[in-house]
Design a protein that fits this description.
Elements (H helix, E strand, L loop, with lengths): L1 H25 L5 H19 L1 H31 L1
């Protein structure tokens, strides 16, 4: 699940960058909790566009894994039916 670790790391990095920019720009007007929530919202929106390729690779990996598991279950079922 290397793709999962990469995607999660990129999301975390994007959040930290967003929070850092907001902290520098708005820390005198807002406390930490609103800044964290604002960074979370911004990161959620940005990740839809910025992390598209990483998310697609993760989805392809998960789909391949699910297909392999389904094939193994189907092979096991058909072997069970033959007995």
């Amino acid at each position: 699940m290397k793709e999962f670790a990469i995607y999660t790391g990129l999301r975390l990095a994007l959040f930290l960058v967003s929070f850092g920019i907001l902290w520098v720009a708005l820390h005198s007007w807002l406390t930490i909790w609103p800044l964290l929530l604002l960074a979370l919202v911004i990161t959620s929106i940005l990740s839809l566009f910025v992390l598209r390729t990483a998310r697609e690779r993760l989805a392809a990996t998960l789909e391949a894994r699910a297909t392999r598991m389904t094939d193994r279950m189907e092979a096991s079922r058909s072997a069970e039916d033959k007995d």
